Amino acid sequence: MTIKSIFLQLMSAAILVSCSNQPETTEATDKKEMIVRDQHTHAQPDVAVATHLDWVAKVDFEQKKIMATANWDIKPSADATEIIFDIYDLKIFEVRVDGKKVETTVGEMDVHMGQALIVPISPEAKEVSIAYETSTGARALQWLDAEQTAGKKSPFLFTQSQAILARTWVPIQDSPGIRFTYEATVSVPPNMLALMSAENPKEKNAEGVYTFKMPQPIPAYLMALAVGDVYFEAISDRAGVYAESSLLDTAVYEFADLEDMIQAAESLYGPYAWGQYDLIVLPPSFPFGGMENPRLTFATPTILAGDRSLVALVAHELAHSWSGNLVTNATWDDFWLNEGFTVYFEHRIMEKVYGKEYSEMLASLTRAELFEAAEAMMEDAPNDTKLKLDLAARNPDDGVTSIPYNKGYFFLRLIEEEVGREKFDAFLKNYFETNKFKVMTTEQFITYLKANLLSEEQYATLLADEWIYETGIPSNIPEVPSDRFAKVDVILETYTADGQLAEVQIVEEWTTHEWLHFINSLPEDISVTQLAELDAAYGFSQSGNSEILAAWFQPTIRAGYEPVYPKVEYFLTTVGRRKFLTPTYKVLIDSGNKDMALAIYEKARPNYHAVSRETMDALLGYSE
Ligand code: BES
Ligand code: ZN
Q: pLDDT at position 36, please?
């Protein structure tokens, strides 16, 4: 952290402390929107805030850069002398305030935060125009060569702005608590379609110029752009899929239940607020499973299993249309308010559409994953097992673990079990309605919870403060009884006791989730011979299901089952989804195969998005 950024942070902290005796937040007053201190922005929204963006951009695949002008409508306070934007490695050409050229100051570079772009203004200023281009290293952007796409004919570009990478492609007040509306005009090469987190075109035009509008205010981390040779197909009159032509039919089949999911979500927690809901299937290097960009969820192709078994991810991203996109975590320390609520909502959608027996399998897998993750984290990052995180001066990406997702989920499930579903649903529906288009801190949520649902006594009995502010998993975490997994456990016991494989009729009826439970529960000391036997019987190494394959890599690599190695290499060089990369590289390292891991990584690394690359560099101790 630089002296300058420390100074800026102290300044913003001081402003807040002076208007409140609570250092964390100040309550909303009639006049002023609540102001929350976000450690990950240079912006000072209480001095001057940007409210609307008109973005005019040209996407240049030859030079791998975006040339653009960001025209911001701004609202200065009565004594404002400057407005501050976040930038990261942007090349700024010219800045104008109400048409008049001004001299700006660029703060020192901080490795996580980037720089402050300080623009002098008067309290009457209305518009700031910033002409700029992106740098080659822009971390939000991934420029793919044609070979890295399904069609292998056209290049592809996509952005990933969450958590604080929007500033690498737009000069922006990059804080989840600052919302703005936007419109955009984007020029792309012929035969490519541009799409944003906005009202989108459904087909290409000859000029390659596309216009966009996002009339509802969104935070910077939900700014998104994708450019590729993609096509649209509708699933219902308000939902559809974009994908490369060779994947479109598969995707439409896989996501056939999309409209049912939207209706299930609406019946739970109120109307879908964003009009259209589409998905775009990205190339396999997309570093996440999904990203909830408003109106257009970005999704990994690794959920195209052919049998709709991995669509919980769609339920998850859809759920963010309420939890996250309507009610937004105030800072990245409150990330569990986005993700924990979303996992809870996701499970409820899955239960409504596919039944409780099915959704409880998912919840059971979630629980096992949580315990495993928490146990590992208690060793080297115990504080990150608290729901309320402390990410000051760190990369907010450090907070993206199983904790905000799954510990968050089980905390909410515990509250549901305490008050009953009917009461909890009414509470949640109200929570979304009352707080839509606003931010929420953990402390505000606690206040809201006590005012609207739990007595002080109930709050204490549930160990709520322990859940939120202490490390590890509290003892009152709900159990998840799953009959279907209990049956899998019986089969597993028979196999480990007598080496007897299950009868075909039994396993034929298993879903992906039963198989995952089976693979994850194999004994630690399983032998190579047994793994070969299981592989021969059930064909795990040949599985077209990415979750099964990734799960299968764990016991096989641990035991040194060599026939799986070519699959591992193929997977790691074609898929960039971090959730799969991390455990696979980890088990290679832990099983004494670090050389193999590094050899594969050398080949694979150029295909990974910066987000995955940074995590794997650290894991493998790799430097260029
Ligand atoms: N918003 C997240 C992805 C994210 C989080 C990106 C933090 C950058 C920083 C998204 O909704 C998500 O949680 N994706 C999961 C899906 C899963 C939990 C169903 C993923 O990518 O694996
Ligand atoms: Zn999420």
A: 75
How remote is the C-alpha of 353 from its chain's centroid? 23
- Residue 300 CA: nearest ligand 1 atom is 21
Instruction: Judge if the upstream peptide bond of residue 381 is cis by omega within 30 degrees of 0.
Output: no
> What domains appear along the chain, each with residue ranges and CATH number?
3-145+153-226 (2.60.40.1730), 229-321 (3.30.2010.30), 327-481 (1.10.390.10), 485-620 (1.25.40.320)
Span 166-173, mean pLDDT? Answer: 99
Q: Which atom of ligand 1 is nearest to the CA of 313?
A: 19
pTM value surpassing 0.85: yes
| CB under 5 Å of ion ligand 2: residues | 339, 342
From 88, 210, 242, 405, the catalytic residue: 405
Q: Which of 195-199, 459-463, 466-470, 496-500 has the lowest mean pLDDT?
A: 496-500
CA 320–ligand 1 middle distance (angstroms): 10
Question: How many whole angstroms separate alpha carbon 31 and alpha carbon 420?
Answer: 38
Separation of alpha carbons 201 and 248, rounded Å = 17
> Rounded to the nearest whole angstrom, what is the distance from the C-alpha of residue 614 to the centroid of ligand 2?
20
Q: Please tell me whether the peptide bond between 116 and the residue prior to it is cis, using omega within 30 degrees of 0.
A: no
CA–CA gap between residue 369 and residue 377 (Å, rounded): 12
Q: Atom 22 (ligand 1): residue with closest C-alpha? A: 289
* 317 part of the active site: yes
pLDDT tens-digit series, residues 526-578: 999 999 999 999 999 999 999 999 999 999 999 999 999 999 999 999 999 99
Query: Ligand 1: which atom is nearest the Cα of residue 346?
Result: 19
405 is catalytic: yes
Q: Quote the pLDDT of residue 503.
A: 87
Residue 387 DSSP one-character state = S
Q: Quote the ligand 2 centre to 342 CA distance (angstroms).
A: 6
